[in-house]
Design goal:
This protein has nine helices and ten strands. It is of the alpha/beta class. It has a domain of about 170 residues: P-loop containing nucleotide triphosphate hydrolases (Rossmann fold), CATH 3.40.50. The longest helix is centred in the C-terminal third of the chain and has 16 residues. It is globular and about 50 Å long. The model has no long low-confidence stretch (mean pLDDT about 90).
Length: about 250
């Protein structure tokens, strides 16, 4: 795969067969994410975004299609694909009885990162958690816990980071800090795939945006082009998803 392409998806389908009823969650999804960009993946609830992320994570099997991550085929090289990705889930799930520093060391151990190769302090600094390094996770605010999830996803230094609704339920100040961390990661060369319901956030942050609705890709373009004839991404978004047939 071309080294300028971090992720390539070709004709990916996911069909659930339950009680003799087939439901298409993803239908012939195809797109590429360029190395070094912040790529927005948008869509209403039930659009298929989470299914797609779970396919990349290896927790859901696609029905067919081809996925290449950092040059590795998902079917042939699943371990290398997982090593190339850092995934920040939407749900906050951290052990309340460990400190951020301990949790990062545990996570690094799970990925087989040697002690001499760990960058725990650097990750804590990057995610603005240095002053909470030794605090119990249960004492962290909701925003800090979200930043801790980002930190955990970085322990094996993946070239691609996927953030699934990372600022949901976060106050304005913490959202700004989290977005600053995302931009800094991108400046350091990490490719970002970003899902969000905050459309203004996507228009400010993302280089390109893909919009999925009812399992179909309904738009894929640079943020600038999507907004060329309309400065409001929300209006563009609503128009695009309303044009998908039931």
């Amino acid at each position: 795969m071309n080294s300028s392409i971090a992720l390539k998806v070709e004709n990916v389908n996911k069909i659930y067969d339950q009680k003799n009823k087939k439901t298409k969650t993803l239908e012939n999804i195809s797109f590429e994410v360029k190395t070094g960009e912040i790529f927005g993946l948008l869509g209403p609830n039930g659009a298929g975004k989470s299914t797609f992320i779970n396919i990349l994570a290896g927790t859901v099997n696609k029905t067919n299609g081809i996925v290449n991550v950092w040059g590795f085929n998902l079917d042939k090289n699943p371990r290398q694909v997982r090593a190339s990705l850092g995934i920040v889930p939407q749900e906050i799930n951290v052990d309340p009885f460990f400190s951020p520093k301990k949790l990062l060391d545990i996570q690094a151990g799970l990925y087989g990162v040697k002690n001499s190769e760990r960058i725990t302090d650097e990750i804590l600094k990057l995610t603005n958690l240095s002053d909470k390094a030794d605090a119990y996770a249960r004492n962290l605010s909701g925003g800090m816990k979200r930043r801790l999830l980002v930190a955990k996803a970085l322990v094996h230094q993946p070239p691609i980071l996927i953030l699934d609704e990372p600022t949901a339920g976060v106050d304005v100040d913490l959202r700004r800090k989290l977005l600053d961390s995302v931009r800094e990661l991108n400046r350091q060369g990490v490719t970002i795939i970003y899902t969000t319901h905050y459309l203004k956030e996507a228009s400010d942050l993302c280089d390109r945006i893909a919009i999925i609705n009812k399992g179909k890709l309904v738009a894929l373009n640079s943020t600038k082009e999507l907004l060329r004839n309309n400065s409001d991404l929300e209006e563009v978004f609503l128009e695009l998803v309303s044009n998908v047939n039931d």
